Please model this.
Amino acid sequence: MRSLRRSAESLHRPDRPDVFVLDGREWDLLDGVFAPPFSASTGVAMELLAAEQHAAAGAGKQGTRGKQGRQGRRRSLLEIGCGTGVIAVTAALTGHDRVVASDISPQAARNTALNAARHGVSDRVRTLCGDLFAPLAELGGDERFDTVYWHSNFVKAPEHYVYGSMHERAYVDAGYAAHRRYLAGAHDHLAPGGRVLLHFSDRGDVLGLRRTARECGRGLRVLRSRRVREGQETVEHMLLEVTAARAALRPAA
Model:
C-alpha cells in the first residue's frame, strides 16, 4: 500500500527536520509524528478551514445585522488527530479562546503541547491523548464545542489490518472503524449551533464513507475542495460537514 510506504519513508528520511515552516510560522516536529513538510495535506487543510471560517463569519455578520454581533463571541474547537498541533495552535492564534486537541499518539500529543508553548497559547490549548472522544472523560465528559474537526486518516486499510506502528494510524484506518465512530459520535460533543467537520481526500474511499455515514444516520456536505499535485498524482482534498440528517454528498449551494 503506497500510503504505508509513505508513512515508513517519512519517518526515516535524512531531510526530516526538527523544525519546519508552515503558514509563515515555525513548528517543532518530534520523531514518530506525521510530518507536514512531506505532504501538502496540512497546508491545504489550513486553507480550506480558513476560507470556510471567513465565509461563515461573513454570513454571521449579515444574519445578525441590527442585533448583537458575533465578533465578541467566545469560540471553541475540538480537534481529533492533532499531530504536530498546527491546526489547533493556529485556531488559538486566530480567535479561538478554548481549544482541545487530542491524538491517539502520545508523541503527537506532546508535539502539540510543545508547539502551543512555542507560540504562547498553552493557556488556550489543552492537549489530550487517546482514541477519538475517549480522552474527553478527563474533562468531565460534558464539554461542548462550536466546532468538532478531524483531518482523518482517510486511506482505508483491510478490516483486520494490524498496525505496524503508531505512525501508520496517521495514514490508514482499518475497515473505516474510526470513521464510523467519528460520524456516529461527534455530534454528542457539539454546542448548540455548532458544526462537525471532516477533512477527507479522494485517496480515501469516498463512496465507502458515504455509505458509512448513511448507516450512522448522518449526511455529508462538501463545503470546500481543492485539487493539488502530490508526486505523480493529483489529489482532491475536501472539507466536509457531517450533518445530523442524511444528505447527499454534494457541494454546498
Summary: Residues 15 and 247 are 44 Å apart (CA to CA). Residues 64-71 have pLDDT under 50 and may be disordered. The chain is about 30% helix and 30% strand. The two ends are 36 Å apart (CA to CA).
